[in-house]
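Lab notebook, design round three. We kept the backbone fixed and only want residue identities now. Task for the bench partner: fill in a sequence for the structure below.
Input structure tokens:
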């Protein structure tokens, strides 16, 4: 299966208010292995960047002034993600922005371009209800080093998310197989336990049987002399 782990940075929080995509970062997984193939581009949004957004990703208008507009990179983006399953953290946010950019160009939305979308935020909340589900929190939970992440960046976040996703979905089938194998205890010459020895039966002697009868008689005698209350 081909999967694309994707992240974006934007000029603000809501495409409905005119905010635009300014960075796209994607990394490719093929049969759950990172291939080293990636798609990364900065985009000139042709509008101002909100101060709150700039504080998150550190990208400003001067840096983007000579970068291509979305229309110039749309075909390359579509080619990279086409027919793949997308893995996105808080998918509704990124998909909403990208669908808006595609719609402005008269292009079909991602659901018609890609096979499926997996939302790792939803997955994390289902796996650990009530616990923090940010990318940083998931990196900490799955012991993934994110010390170099001082600001959000689409490609860096996509790379971290790929590791998080693999950690979140790894080992479920192998764990079940291991439990089934442990339930079967092997014996015989080829078993690591070796041949199981025959059980030794210990029978009481005549003296031990006589002593047992005496104890029972004393118990019965003591019980008859006990007054009921």
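Proposed sequence:
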């Amino acid at each position: 299966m081909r999967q694309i782990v994707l992240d974006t940075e934007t000029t603000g929080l809501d495409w409905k208010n005119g905010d635009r995509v300014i960075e796209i970062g994607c990394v490719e997984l093929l049969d759950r292995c990172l291939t080293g193939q990636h798609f990364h581009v900065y985009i000139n949004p042709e509008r101002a960047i909100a101060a709150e957004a700039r504080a998150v990703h550190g990208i400003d208008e001067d840096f983007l002034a000579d970068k291509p507009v979305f229309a110039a990179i749309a075909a390359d983006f579509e080619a990279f993600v086409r027919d793949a399953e997308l893995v996105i953290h808080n998918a509704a946010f990124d998909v909403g922005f990208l669908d808006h950019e595609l719609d402005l160009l008269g292009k079909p939305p991602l659901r018609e371009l890609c096979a499926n979308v997996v939302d790792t935020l939803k997955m994390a909340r289902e796996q650990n209800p009530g616990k923090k589900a940010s990318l940083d929190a998931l990196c900490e939970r799955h012991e993934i080093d994110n010390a170099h992440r001082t600001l959000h960046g689409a490609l860096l976040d996509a790379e971290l998310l790929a590791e998080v996703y693999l950690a979140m979905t790894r080992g479920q089938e192998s764990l079940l197989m291991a439990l089934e194998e442990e339930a079967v205890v092997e014996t015989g010459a080829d078993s690591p336990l070796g041949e199981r020895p025959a059980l030794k039966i210990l029978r009481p002697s005549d003296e031990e049987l006589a002593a047992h009868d005496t104890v029972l008689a004393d118990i019965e005698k003591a019980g008859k002399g006990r007054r009921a209350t």
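Keep this in mind before ordering anything: The beta strands are 2-10, 21-30, 33-42, 85-88, 116-119.
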